[in-house]
Amino acid sequence: MLNPIELAWAGLKNYVRDKNVNFSLSDIRHLAYEWMTSLSRTTAIGYINETRKIEDTFKKSDRFIEEIEEELVEEEEEVDSLEEEMDD
């Protein structure tokens, strides 16, 4: 969910699902319009902020993986050099 539009789309679908009782296309169109026109600035900002939190989590995870990867590569190089010494 790195796109606030996905969160908004989920909000719209939930709204229509909860309010849709007749299952007609015109009702769905009306409910979608109703949701979009009632979307508050606060809610829209909330979608953006939630996306930023998720993005920050991914960035932290990437940094952590890069650190571990460097350590693993260094350890592997040490093992390789020890094995070479033992073979000689």
Tell me what you see in this structure:
- The model has no long low-confidence stretch (mean pLDDT 87).
- The chain has one domain (4-87).
- Helix 1 (4-19) packs across helix 2 (25-38) and helix 1 (4-19) crosses helix 3 (41-87).
- The protein has 88 residues and is mainly α.
- It has helices spanning 4-19, 25-38, 41-87.
- The chain contains 3 helices and no strands.
Short structural summary:
The chain is mainly α. It is 88% helix and 0% strand.
Structural class: mainly alpha
Helix percent reads over 70%
Number of structural units classed as domains = 1
**Which spans of ≥5 residues are poorly predicted at pLDDT below 50?**
none
Number of helices: 3
| Cα end-to-end separation | 54 Å
Mean pLDDT, to the nearest integer, reads 87
Largest sheet: none
H/E series: HHH
* Shape, per Cα inertia axes: rod-shaped
Q: Classify the beta-strand content into a percent band.
A: under 5%
Q: Would you report the number of β strands?
A: 0
Radius of gyration: 25 Å
